Amino acid sequence: MLKIVVGSPRLRSFAVVSEPPCCTGGDAWRVVEDRDGVEVYWSGRKLFSMRIATWERGVEITHTLERDEHVYGLGEKYAHQDRRFKRFHFWNVDQTVHLPSGDPMYKSIPFYIVAKPGKVYGVFVDYPGYLYIDTGVEHLDRIVIRVGAGYAVLYVFSGENLYEILDAYTRLTGRPFMPPKWAVGYHQSRYSYASQDEVLRVAEEFRRRRIPCDAIWLDIDYMDGYRLFTWSRDRFPDPRGMIEKLHSMNMRVVTIVDVGIKEEKGYHAYDRGVELNAFLRTPDGELFRGGVWPGLCVFPDFLRSSGRRYWAQRLAEFMGVGVDGIWLDMNEPAIFYMEKPFRSMVAEVSKRLIENDVEGAGNHYFWRARHLIGTTSVGKGIGMVDIPAVHLDDDGGEVRHSEIHNAYPLLENEATKMGFEIARPGRRWFILTRSAYAGIQRLAAVWTGDNQSDWGHMAISIPMLLNLGLSGVPFAGADVGGFGDDVDPEMLVRWTQLGAFYPFFRNHSSKGTRRQEPWVFGEPWSSYVAEAIRLRYRLLPYIYSMFIEAHRSGKPVIRPLFAEFPQDEQSYVVEDEFLVGPSLLVAPVLTPGARARAVYLPQVRWLDLWSGEVLEPGWRLVEAPIDRVPLFLREDGAVVTTEPRSSATEPWGTVTIDVFVGRKACAVLYDDDGETADFEKGRFFEAKVCIERRGGDAVIRVEELHMGYEPGFSKVRIRLLGSPWVERVLLEGEELRVYRSGKAVVAELGIGRLTASQQG
Ligand code: MIG
Q1: Quick check: 352 pLDDT over 90?
Q2: Active site residue 568
Q3: Residue 202 in this model has a pLDDT that exceeds 50
């Protein structure tokens, strides 16, 4: 890692959790001054030439891009997989325009990866105020970074492959948190389930129909007048009883928590915050107020540890009734109105942006200013460009909100995690957040906000989520079925088939739109939707093992093709299919009426998991009837599946390793208690099971084994697919009894027999 500091940073970093001792990161790096900047080399290879300029109120950094390099990452953007030749703004807003013109969005993660066959590096610009990154509009072959402050901090990462970059980046900004097992299941949400009776009816419907589901989500209407940390007495008279009932059905409850606290004397969260001086103030020292759902609100100052403690305490108390997870919304922070008229805000903001202009960018800034302010609809979903508020740090120093705007939700997430630690020490926490800054992966899962029931929004969710993964945030999803507008039957089926592979899998929709629980369209649609959800639960052993891998090294759960096939040019741009882990390729159907689709199969042979056919690499047309999402297993790859249960927390009983062996394929069996942090102390089960071809023999070996936990499965089935060469299956030289099922050769053994083989 190479650290570049321009000027002198005024504030501590919020993203960085552990910085390696020195900055030029060892011998591999070389920085050479040239006529107007520096050239940066890693391992003898030139990455780029960089120029740094400072002007009165900002820093401009540019560096070269080679003609055939691609750009990825940059967090949540409504943009295609390759992010080159675009301009991006980093300023968290409640963005209702989910279109390219709707940049910026809710999250700001100024980290990008530049890649082409044989070369890859990453750059992280650590500044939580307004930031602009141009990937090739102002100059075809340069990246331009503008920081609206007198300083900038940059980190450059390189390595042999993409995963080394993500490893280094998540070492610096924190490893992805390990979620509880239930959070990896299916989630059902609606804005809003309006009473505890309705919540229970929805939960019972899932169980009655045997559709797996792990959590029901409560949106803002559970509260009393939108006051945070309260329950409506009429509609939710007995939250504890409701939650106990849900828990007895093996369902969890996640409640939304906004960020604005209603300004109202006598309301505990307000009174307590005033007492502790926990709220943001205006430059004149008044409480800063902004209008959100409950009317005028005040906002916690998460910069101060006292502000974070205040929040953690309120939250922990609220969670006492048994709430399992917290959903942080409106935390950009989004403010609908301020006491000052909206129109003058627009004018002020445009003026300020133009004043801050540097040559050439003015026009762009001007038009974008209107988007920064919000959207065409005044009064709803407006994200403010500036919030005239002041924070205090722990030493009593003042910090303008605009200097740390993008980090506000990150600090809120830290405080929220503290709340979990108070309410349920030793257990894993679960937070979903809408707004974020770099480093969010260590604290929360994210979703992409208010999309629409629209085929285009469904398709673009793939590059959005893949690039979040390449921004260090593996646990991400988009609202399945679409949030706004009315879903139709075919779209719900196809979207659920896609969502089954989102790392975060939640169906959610807005007030005023058609209901979209799995059964709303009746047969045959409801069966197709249910089957797609079951597919997720079949794949849980494999997907869960990807989460532990993400937690250990920052590897994404879902991956663009080039992550695994960096020598394959085409892999760099395909964005309508993706990999889950290293071995499973998913090619969802993204257009209405389609019953087949083109699939690009990179570099190796692939096994069609529906037909059992072995396919050569390249472009193929594959069948995709309405009840089927095309799935392919990589040669020398493996997936681990189980029978679907109603909840992800139920023991798996038997797991099946599906392998397609060319020379050798390995599967990872992983399990832990799914609830506590004990896995960090070695209380987990892990076995790397490899199957190697030796002539007509398939030889099974356990290559690595960790037995710190008794896994929730006792039987392992090994299913050899696409392997007509198999004559015998051997374990420790002993031939196993096998049976044939279709074209597959199957061996079954007890987990004890398998693990004993390694120790011997
Ligand atoms: O202004 O809580 O993105 O998921 O259902 C809308 C109501 C506020 C926006 C979130 C959405 C949620 C909705 N919220």
Answers
A1: no
A2: no
A3: yes
**Exactly one of 82, 134, 450, 635 is catalytic; which is it?**
450
Lowest mean pLDDT among 47-61, 561-575, 577-591, 740-754: 47-61
Q: In this predicted structure, what is the pLDDT of residue 495? A: 99
Respond yes or no: is residue 450 known to be catalytic: yes
CA distances from 77 to 106, 413, 579 (A): 9, 21, 20
Question: Would the CB of 449 count as within 6 Å of ligand 1?
Answer: yes
Ligand 1 atom at shortest distance from the alpha carbon of 483: 4
Atom 13 (ligand 1) nearest CA = 191
Among 332, 564, 568, 576, which one carries the catalytic annotation?
A: 332
The pLDDT, as a whole number, for residue 95 is 85
Cα 492 from Cα 376, distance rounded (Å): 29
Atom of ligand 1 nearest to the CA of 219: 2
Tell me: the pLDDT tens digits for 664-694?
A: 999 999 999 999 999 999 999 999 999 999 9
- Whether this prediction's pTM lies above 0.90 is answered by yes
d(CA 104, CA 372): 7
Give residue-wise pLDDT tens across range 458-505.
Answer: 999 999 999 999 999 999 999 999 999 999 999 999 999 999 999 999
Examine the pLDDT at 267 and tell me if it is beyond 60: yes
* 190 Cβ closer than 6 Å to some ligand 1 atom: no
Cα(439) to centroid(ligand 1), Å: 23
Q: Which one is predicted more confidently, 362 or 507?
A: 507
Pick the atom of ligand 1 nearest to 449's CA: 3
Helices 196-208 and 239-248, axial angle in degrees (round to 10) = 10
Average pLDDT, integer, range 268-277: 98
Can you give the pLDDT at residue 101?
73
3-state secondary structure labels for all residues of 260-285: CEECCCCCHHHHHHHHCCCECECCCC
The C-alpha atoms of residue 163 and residue 689 are separated, in whole angstroms, by 22
Tell me what percent of the chain is helix, strand and coil, each rounded to the nearest 5: 25, 30, 45
738-741 and 744-750 strand pairing: antiparallel
Q: What is the 164 CA–ligand 1 centroid distance (Å)?
A: 36
Token pair of 440, please? 């969010």
Mark whether 332 is an active-site residue. yes
Local structure of 66: helix, strand or coil: coil
Q: What is the C-alpha end-to-end distance of the chain, expressed in Å?
A: 42
Q: Please, are residues 107 and 437 in contact by the beta-carbon 8 Å criterion?
A: yes
Contact (Cβ atoms closer than 8 angstroms) between residue 461 and residue 451: yes
**Nearest Cα residue to 474 out of 579, 619, 400, 362:** 579
Per-residue pLDDT at 758: 75
Distance 529 CA to ligand 1 centre (A): 24
Ligand 1 centroid, distance to 759 Cα (angstroms) = 53
